[in-house]
Amino acid sequence: MISPAEGVRKLRNAFILYAMAEIAFFVSFISAVNFALSFLAGVSSFTSIIYLVLSDILGLVLGIIGGIFAYQGFKSFPLIKGNADGGAIVSIVAFILSPLSLLVGLIIGIVGFALMKGGLDKISDYYSESTIRQGALLSLIPVVSIIGCIIIAVGLNKAENKPVAIQQPNPVFAQPTFYPSLVNQIGLGVIKSNGEIMLTLDSKISGNIISVRIENTPYFANVSIPINMGVNNVKINMNTVISLIPSTTYPITLIISNGMTSLTVNAQAIFNP
């Protein structure tokens, strides 16, 4: 699993490619209209045919690559990976069908972008970057969606270079609706400057901690730490030197997977170097 920061970069690149793919298909549509008009006028237009074929191929390739990047980007935000990454897959189908039937591809594409909008809205809230939400809305409108994709990419680029908004609740890693008390922290954890985090967790399930984030800081790590039912004394190694304010308590977000679903656990730890 890639980090959310890498996921934002993947999504930014995805929507740049989406915009380029849509421009290519728009050129293809214009070329098809020119060919049809030339044919009705009894004039052959080989140039229009060449533009039509090349733009279809270009749009297809760019759209598929963009869809793969979007899928990977949304996967880096574990608790949005339902509809959002599904929308990326739908968008790939839309781009594949567009050279065969532009109308069918357009309809399926709108469905895909509507599914991705939900994930983009959560990312917009998470990074307190409203540009992403505005672009996501425009991306649902044919032709205007080209501008929408560019605005989304600009917003994601801004989000990549800004800290997470402290005043916002964390909707991306928000507590899921299913059984939020399956894993609870006992006491207060400790963060060490050598990158270790010590926590005591009371768990009603067995699984693995797969990611750890110290909120409102740049510290994030993908890990694989087993936990069992009962009380677990967990030592997490972030594999980096940690520099925080001594004697300050920081919120910790853990993602725990049991192989079938993911659970977000909120904990707290004090920095005691």
From TrEMBL:
Stated name of the protein: DUF973 family protein
Keyword Transmembrane helix set for record: yes
Pfam families linked to this entry: DUF973
Alphabetized UniProt keyword annotations: Membrane, Transmembrane, Transmembrane helix
Residues that span the membrane, as ranges: 15-37, 49-71, 92-116, 136-156
